[in-house]
Amino acid sequence: MRIGVLCSGGDSPGMNAAIRGATLRGVDVHGFEMVGFVDGWRGFHEGETVELDRPAVRGLSGQGGVFIGTSRVPPFDGGPGEADLTDFRARFADYGLDAFMLIGGNGTQRVSSILHDSGIPVVGLPKTIDNDLDGTDYTFGFDTAVSIATEAIDRLRTTGDSHRRCMVLEVMGRDAGWIALHAGMAGGAQAILVPEFPESIDQVCDWVTSVRDRGRSSLVVVAEGFALAGNGSQVTRDGRDGFGRLRLGGVAESLAPVIEERTGIETRATVLGHVQRGGAPTAFDRVLATRTGIAGADAALHEDWGTMAALRGDRIEMIPFADAVGRLKTVPDDRYAEVRLNFG
């Protein structure tokens, strides 16, 4: 069996470990041939590949990024209808592939579902630092992003305390605030602002002043997709991303001067940005990614197509794509409510 391995969307710590796990299981144990497509669908369209075997993946578990590259290049021209897959099928056959192993988040696994429904064998490996892919408890990359954000909170708190400032930290999270929620809880933030639950500027300032009145300095964590109640619009930058969406970013820089003006407390903003994606994955993400890759290779052996490797409790289970795509996993009411009581 010859399997094409491809990464799509943003990079995520643990992707190398997932490829290593899948390759060692697939090639050395099951006797597969495995080929990686360089820079995602660009490599598939342009014929740039790398053979995957034990020497190719040696020492990858602890490395960040993804050594075969990833991109937001689309898999199809136009829509995903049967007519649009004619050239795709021909290229699939030219590579001598029997199946795909696609590594990515919600968009990638939606493509996996389309290919499976069109008769092309696929298994999926879920990665996204946002942890917003449904059907799995955690995606690899999330724990690393949270750890990096938590370290940033710890560092900002010491300088904020030194100057009696309010510090506002912006983390990633377009539609789901999991990074902000977990990092904010771990770092003891006095307010955590997530896209799922708008808060008014009056409420945010009340939390900040209540901390000041206790002789402390506030630290506010805000997800990039947060919008103030009554405003309804996210803060955006110029241009669009690879999926055609408006680029988010700058909500912390928008909030900080308003907080300072209303409270009289000197306030500074920090945008963590792509630092959250970089560097070595945590031990948790290395283990989760490796187990996910192994499960994907085993699923291919058993021709368990149309499934994604999901973490359920402490087990990796192959679940149908229908259980993973079509809706985002967002922060539920009860999770936000339990931490909101501690704000201020």
Automatic annotation (TrEMBL):
It is found in: Cytoplasm. Its EC number is 2.7.1.11. PROSITE patterns: PHOSPHOFRUCTOKINASE. ATP binds at residues 10, 72-73, 105-108. Keywords: ATP-binding, Cytoplasm, Glycolysis, Kinase, Magnesium, Metal-binding, Nucleotide-binding, Transferase. Its main location: cytoplasm. The record marks 107 as: Important for substrate specificity. One of its GO terms (biological process) is fructose 6-phosphate metabolic process. It catalyses: beta-D-fructose 6-phosphate + ATP = beta-D-fructose 1,6-bisphosphate + ADP + H(+). Its cofactor is Mg(2+). It holds the Pfam family PFK. Mg(2+) binds at residue 106. Pathway: Carbohydrate degradation; glycolysis; D-glyceraldehyde 3-phosphate and glycerone phosphate from D-glucose: step 3/4. Residues 2-298 form the Phosphofructokinase domain. Substrate binds at residues 128-130, 165, 172-174, 224, 268, 274-277. It is an enzyme of class 2 (transferase). The active site is at 130 (proton acceptor). GO terms for molecular function: 6-phosphofructokinase activity; AMP binding; ATP binding; diphosphate-fructose-6-phosphate 1-phosphotransferase activity; fructose-6-phosphate binding; identical protein binding; metal ion binding; monosaccharide binding. One of its GO terms (cellular component) is 6-phosphofructokinase complex. Catalyzes the phosphorylation of D-fructose 6-phosphate to fructose 1,6-bisphosphate by ATP, the first committing step of glycolysis. HAMAP family: Phosphofructokinase_III. Homodimer or homotetramer. This is ATP-dependent 6-phosphofructokinase. It comes from Leucobacter soli. The lineage of its organism: Bacteria, Bacillati, Actinomycetota, Actinomycetes, Micrococcales. The gene is pfp.
